[in-house]
Design brief:
Elements lengths: L4 H12 L9 H9 L1 H10 L4 E2 H7 L5 H13 L3 E6 L5 E6 L1 H20 L15
Antiparallel strand pairs: 1-3, 2-3
Helix pairs in contact: 2-3, 3-6
């Protein structure tokens, strides 16, 4: 006995998710990956492993708290690998997992497209006070 095409389509949709549905679990991952800080962390880690302080220096304007939260979210989603070495002082580095490398390729492509087309895009929004 085989499943009907409709049943197979439904099962396929369940497996993929439905980002337009309010309860879709992919929305949380999408938020983590495409938030301002998530995107900038992914773009930075696409260049290679970094320690926390290096990431903070490279990503201008990010607070220590926001960077830590973003790294934790991306690690929980399976995009970032945190490696802690038991030395004095502690040495923690962050890098992309194989899944993170795949995701970063798309994020980097979108970021590059935005940078390339910046003159054609609308006027920039005013920056919040904390970033000035």
């Amino acid at each position: 006995m085989t499943l009907s095409t409709t049943a197979q389509d439904l099962i396929g949709a369940w497996e993929r998710g439905n980002v337009l549905a309010a309860g879709c679990p992919s929305r949380g991952i999408l938020q983590h990956l495409t938030s301002k800080w998530g995107t900038l962390v992914m773009v930075t880690l696409a260049t290679g492993p970094h320690r926390f302080a290096e990431l903070r220096r490279r990503i201008a304007g990010v607070s220590e708290r926001m960077l830590a939260q973003t790294l934790q979210q991306l690690e929980a989603d399976g995009f970032v690998l945190r490696v802690a070495r038991d030395v004095v002082p502690p040495h923690v580095s962050y890098s992309l997992t194989p899944l993170g490398v795949e995701a970063a390729a798309h994020v980097v492509a979108l970021t590059a497209w935005i940078e390339t087309n910046l003159p054609r895009l609308g006027p920039p929004l005013p920056r919040p006070q904390a970033e000035r």
